[in-house]
Specification:
The complex is a heterotrimer of chains A (304), B (241) and C (289).
Chain A lengths: L1 H16 L4 H25 L8 H17 L4 H22 L5 H21 L1 H4 L16 H24 L2 H18 L4 H27 L4 H4 L2 H14 L6 H20 L6 H12 L4 H6 L7
Helix pairs in contact in A: 1-7, 2-7, 2-9, 2-11, 2-12, 3-4, 3-5, 3-9, 4-9, 7-9, 8-9, 11-12, 11-13, 12-13
Chain B lengths: L1 E12 L2 E12 L3 E5 L6 H9 L6 E6 L2 E2 L5 H7 L1 E3 L12 H10 L9 H15 L14 H14 L4 E5 L7 H16 L3 E5 L4 H4 L4 E6 L2 E6 L1 H5 L2 H8 L3
Parallel strand pairs in B: 3-8, 3-9, 6-7, 7-8
Antiparallel strand pairs in B: 1-2, 1-4, 4-5, 9-10
Chain C lengths: L2 H32 L6 H19 L7 H20 L5 H24 L9 H4 L1 E4 L2 E4 H23 L1 H11 L1 H6 L4 H26 L7 H15 L4 H21 L5 H15 L11
Antiparallel strand pairs in C: 1-2
Classes of the chains: A mainly alpha (304), B alpha/beta (241), C mainly alpha (289).
């Protein structure tokens, strides 16, 4: 397992070195970024919580990091970490809400929460620059160029996957699974659900916030309607479910397939419909593919 | 020594009264059978004790503490275990992982690692007779094995009191004999047991005392010889046939 | 805030409230009969708005004449939705949210592709005429909006309670198995309900076009409004929806009068959060009737 992973990592680390065209570095960099956010979304789902509002954490991380980078002397790396922190903190109210809200009600609450943040970011001109958003966000390392964005996204993805794996093998992971499978039975066995769900929210929110921060520094500008908007909430959901929520690499697979299809196939041919693959993927999952792509190809593997 | 007491427990669901003024005391190390026709409120009473429901009126005390209205996980940590009439394991987890959940979270004083908990789980699987199914997914088990898993789950939290809901129901005659010997094994470990069984012949051989519910009210409370010859009890069940 | 402004806000809020109740009623019909939460509800309405706007732009006639057309245009979509939502796994409430979340974005993108993002405004002089009610001035169009909404709600109520198919729909919503045992064709009732809901949404869309900009992204907020009212008022209770609508409409109008129009959307989002926390199980069947 480890040697294979090392080999894959090495292969992925090569493109900037062998001078891939900057567009492809950007393309794959953003693909890895979305794969990270999709994996973070999946982490929350393993605890049984379906989020329709991940843009709340994404946008919070993006804005926190950008504002700090633009208005203070803090180093860009610290700004990124702040984005992660703010993403995690933003998730706390929802984690607490999970004490009373379940399933569809919780999903709607996450959606409403992201909406509320979107409207606030849009209208609190003094803090956030209003509807126009922020521009001129510096990259993390000015000398790095596209290669640096690529490596950072790859690093983020590895981090997200590592966190997911560590949780899956731990006590916490068993608690997540128990709550996901049957929350009331887990309760009857002495498990206090709310602290566990809160932890899931904060972990997922933190990783997503980091993704948002990286997005901001890579793209250079952010707008509230985008980074806090329903598309950015829907994307990780679709990527994770389409790829396969029960496989650790499922969300990554879904993200790569969908992002690359959308950017490479649809953007050039039918730009107005570039979100079509996502919508179709979601319909496919809801009606035909409960286990996603992974379910199509493999039988489930069980950890020991 | 009283381990569980219920006083004037009443449970209303809208206009329906499921339990009416139920009062009882369970003593340490007793095996008490809870009997009654279908719909008499037996499982509802269990739901009240385990904290899944809050009584409309009345109080419950467990190990000297008032637990009325407390959340289920707090009550479980005080030492109360429970099985369900229709088995409710964690379907996508293995049998071992299922029981490990119980072993893992039973209290602040005991917080084993996941590996450790899974090893503990294996010991409970031995007790109920499921060691060879440890790696199987809970969703693939037969009914008999699911019932065993239910018991292992309840035992994993090392309770002082067990509420067993129809452990023998749905099992073939040999399965029922196994259940009777299981009851014996559990008592030998010092557990207090309150058990619901629909077929009362299963329990009456081993029970110290029998409580009988009918339409939400407690109509009998005493040793088997007395209760089983009671006219009231016979009438209640006759209405069933 | 002056008395006149306050009174103006009250009237605006009340008018909006009636319309919101109409929006919520068709959302609630689908929820009641199939337990499905249609997050694409707002897009249904916006499509109806586009139909209305298009016919008005084409002919110049009084837009309200096109109400039946807007309603009929949505019927095929209603039937399609009925088919798709029938194939969902449990839990239906959550699975339907996921599916319709995607469908809503699909519809938005299709509208964006075909109609582009331009904000379109339907201006019919007859509707712009101002009527004075004491210190308050109201556009005739808004009075019609409220009036037609109330009339539609009343008709729906009478249909559900006084006609055979209507009562069959109510029975199926309350208990599908029992309804089937009573001889009701539950599949046909479900299809009929989806058709009605789609038609109502389309008609509501045309009304929407008479008082609001029409653009592809306008639908999301309408869906949120419908959900809020269903949570507060109950799925089948039209009076409850109306009261909830009035409460929401008034809160919005007063907030806008006291602060600024741009904060209106925040009121909606916060109202939804509040409604969810107040009624955590409000969208689950059995609780709403």
């Amino acid at each position: 397992m480890i040697p294979t992973a090392a080999l894959i990592l090495f292969a992925l680390a090569l493109p900037p070195v062998i001078a891939f065209h900057p567009y492809y570095l950007y393309l794959f960099g953003t693909a890895f970024l979305w794969a990270s956010v999709a994996s973070a979304w999946n982490l929350l789902e393993t605890a049984g919580q379906i989020s329709f509002g991940h843009a709340a954490f994404f946008g919070a991380g993006a804005y926190a990091s950008s504002l700090v980078a633009l208005r203070t002397n803090l180093s860009p790396q610290l700004a990124l970490l702040l984005g992660a922190l703010v993403g995690g903190v933003t998730a706390v109210p929802l984690g607490l809400a999970s004490h009373v809200l379940r399933s569809a009600s919780l999903a709607l609450a996450t959606f409403a929460y992201a909406e509320a943040l979107r409207v606030i970011a849009r209208n609190w001109d003094g803090l956030t620059g209003g509807g126009a958003g922020l521009i001129g966000i510096p990259p993390v390392d000015s000398a790095g160029g596209r290669a640096e964005g690529y490596y950072l996204s790859l690093l983020l993805l590895v981090t997200a996957l590592a966190v997911g794996r560590a949780v899956e093998r731990s006590r916490l992971g068993l608690a997540f699974a128990a709550i996901r499978e049957r929350e009331d039975r887990a309760q009857a066995l002495g498990l206090a659900p709310t602290p566990v769900k809160l932890t899931a929210f904060v972990l997922s929110g933190g990783l997503t916030g980091l993704g948002g921060a990286l997005y901001a520094h890579t793209v250079g500008s952010i707008q509230p309607d985008l980074v806090f908007g329903p598309s950015f909430s829907l994307l990780p959901l679709i990527m994770a479910t389409f790829g396969g929520i029960r496989a650790p690499l499922g969300p990554t697979l879904g993200a790569l397939v969908l992002h690359l299809t959308s950017q490479l196939v649809l953007h050039p041919l039918l730009p107005r419909l570039h979100q079509l693959p996502y919508a179709l993927a979601l319909i496919a999952v809801a009606l035909a593919l409960p286990k996603g792509l992974v379910g199509l190809f493999m039988t489930r593997r069980r950890p020991a | 020594m009283a381990i569980l007491e219920g006083h004037n427990l009443t449970m209303r669901f809208g206009g329906l009264v499921a339990l009416k003024n139920v009062t009882f005391t369970i003593t340490s190390n007793e095996l008490v059978a809870l009997l009654g026709p279908n719909g008499s409120g037996k499982t509802t009473l269990f739901d009240l004790i385990s904290g899944h429901l809050t009584p409309s009126e009345g109080t419950i005390r467990f190990q000297g503490e008032t637990i009325t209205g407390r959340s289920p996980h707090r009550i479980a940590r005080l030492g109360l275990g429970r099985t369900y009439q229709i088995p409710r394991p964690f379907p996508a987890l293995t049998v071992r992982e299922n029981v490990a959940v119980g072993a893992l979270f039973r209290g602040a004083s005991h917080s084993p690692s996941r590996i450790h908990a899974q090893r503990e789980a294996e010991r409970f699987l031995e007790i109920v007779g499921l060691p060879d199914k440890a790696g199987a997914l809970a969703s693939t088990l037969s009914l008999g094995d699911l019932k065993r898993l239910e018991l292992a789950l309840a035992l994993a939290t090392r309770p002082a009191l067990l509420l067993l809901d129809e452990l023998a129901a749905g099992l073939p005659p040999r399965g029922r004999e196994e259940v009777i010997s299981l009851y014996g094994k559990l008592r030998a470990r010092g557990l207090t047991i309150v058990a619901i069984e629909h077929d009362f012949r299963t329990l009456t051989q081993v029970a110290d005392r029998i409580l009988v519910l009918n339409q939400g009210s407690l109509i009998a409370d005493g040793p088997p010889e007395v209760v089983l010859t009671s006219r009231r009890v016979a009438d209640a069940y006759l209405g069933e046939c | 805030m002056s008395l006149a402004t306050f009174a103006q806000a009250l009237v605006a809020g009340a008018v909006n409230g009636c319309f919101y109740a109409l929006l919520a009623s068709s959302f609630g019909l689908i929820l009641g009969i199939s337990r499905a939460l249609n997050l694409a509800h707002g897009e249904f309405v916006v499509l109806g708005a586009y139909v209305g706007y298009g016919l008005w732009a084409l002919t110049g006639l009084d837009p309200l004449l096109f109400l039946p057309f807007a309603a009929i245009a949505l019927l095929p979509l209603g039937l399609l939705w009925a088919r798709m939502l029938a194939g969902l796994r449990e839990p239906v409430e959550l699975q339907s949210l996921v599916l319709t979340f995607g469908l809503s974005l699909l519809l938005q993108n299709l509208m964006l592709g075909f109609f582009r993002a331009d904000y379109r405004l339907l201006i019919a002089p007859a509707l712009e005429r101002s009527v004075a009610l004491g210190p308050v001035h109201v556009h005739w169009g808004r009075i019609l909006l409220a009036g037609i909404s109330l009339a539609a709600l009343l008709s729906l109520h009478l249909f559900l309670t006084r006609t055979r198919p209507g009562r069959a729909i109510l029975a199926t919503s309350l208990n599908r198995e029992a309804a089937a045992l009573m001889g009701i064709n539950v599949d046909r009732m479900t299809s009929l309900t989806f058709l009605m809901a789609a038609g109502l949404a389309g008609a509501a869309g045309l009304l929407f076009a008479t008082v609001h900009y029409v653009h592809p992204a306008a639908g999301m907020e309408l869906t949120l409004l419908a959900i809020i009212l269903v949570l507060l008022g109950g799925v089948g209770r039209l009076l409850g929806l109306l009261l909830g609508g009035l409460a929401l409409g008034l809160t919005e109008a007063l907030t806008v009068a006291l602060t600024a129009p741009r904060w209106r959307e925040l009121v909606v989002a916060l109202f939804l959060l509040g409604a969810l926390l107040a009624r955590p199980r409000g969208l689950i069947p059995g609780r709403s009737q």
